[in-house]
Amino acid sequence: MTSNLPSPAPSHSSFVVERRFSAPIERVFATWSDPVKKRRWSSCHEDAGTVEYALDFRLDGTETSRVTFPDGTTQTVKARFLDIAPPERIIYAYDLQRGDVRLSVSLVTVTFENEAGKTKMTFTEQVVLLDGPGDVEERREGTELGLARIDAELG
Amino acid sequence: MKELAEPIAMALPSVMKHLKVMERGGLVRSKKTGRVRVYQLRPPALSAIDGWLAERRAALNEQFDRLDQLLAEESNES
């Protein structure tokens, strides 16, 4: 990508999402390690366009998800597993690309804890946002589209 | 601050109050140099990452709801 506008400096942030599931820890871990199960809950663009999905769940293995929207734009998420300790921990890095522009790079740590037969899952993401010039507006539109889809699903 | 107040028909204390509210809300930031306080619009990079985080959290919550549903369906099957 060539542009005369200067790219803003990368910005950093991190956040945590915690969830509790009534299933035992091994079964919750399997929803991350089994390709069929993982795809069932994680691919959120099935309605939006064609999806390519592949999961090779092992140390140094990769996960790729590519969506082609009706207007021809593609969104690609590529992950690499950096640490796997079943059934307690998964660490992976991933990047998000729209077309050939990389929008973000993240490091994710997912931990699973047994709580009397139930499972506490903690998802921690450390993100580097690489917004190119003019992307802020597009991102805002994307957010609104995403929220509208959630609304539609709840409605 | 005086420069900001001049073009609008508002008394200086009112402008100060408005700017303080805007600063608390993260819309502007200020820096005092000697007797002059300079106000600056917050850089757009911050709002970009806020937008990204809101979008990402919403998407993750949606995904983890489906994960919960998948586990519930498996329990019913067995």
Quick tags:
heterodimer, A: 155 residues, alpha+beta, 7-stranded antiparallel beta sheet, 3 helices, B: two-stranded antiparallel sheet, 2 strands, rod-shaped
Tell me what the structure shows.
The complex is a heterodimer of chains A (155) and B (78). Chain A has 155 residues and is an alpha+beta fold. Helix content of chain A is 24%, strand content 47%. Chain A has helices at 25-33, 35-42, 135-154; strands at 11-21, 50-55, 62-68, 74-85, 89-98, 101-115, 118-129. Chain A is globular, with a radius of gyration of 17 Å. The termini of chain A are far apart. With 78 residues, chain B is α+β, with helices and mostly antiparallel strands. In chain B, 65% of the residues lie in helices and 15% in strands. Chain B is built from three helices and two strands. In chain B, a hairpin with a 2-residue loop joins strand 1 and strand 2. In chain B, 9% of the residues are buried. The mean pLDDT of chain B is 80. Classes of the chains: A alpha+beta (155), B alpha+beta (78).
Short summary of the structure?
The complex is a heterodimer of chains A (155) and B (78). By secondary structure, chain A is α+β, with helices and mostly antiparallel strands.
Strand and helix layout:
The complex is a heterodimer of chains A (155) and B (78).
Chain A: E1 11-21, H1 25-33, H2 35-42, E2 50-55, E3 62-68, E4 74-85, E5 89-98, E6 101-115, E7 118-129, H3 135-154
Antiparallel strand pairs in A: 1-7, 2-3, 3-4, 4-5, 5-6, 6-7
Helix pairs in contact in A: 1-2
Chain B: H1 2-5, H2 12-24, E1 28-33, E2 36-41, H3 44-77
Antiparallel strand pairs in B: 1-2
**What global shape of chain B is seen?**
rod-shaped
Stretches with pLDDT under 50, minimum 5 residues of chain B: none
Proportion of beta-strand residues of chain A: over 45%
* Major beta sheet summary of chain B: 2 strands, antiparallel
H-E order of chain B: HHEEH
Computed over alpha carbons, the radius of gyration of chain A is 17 Å
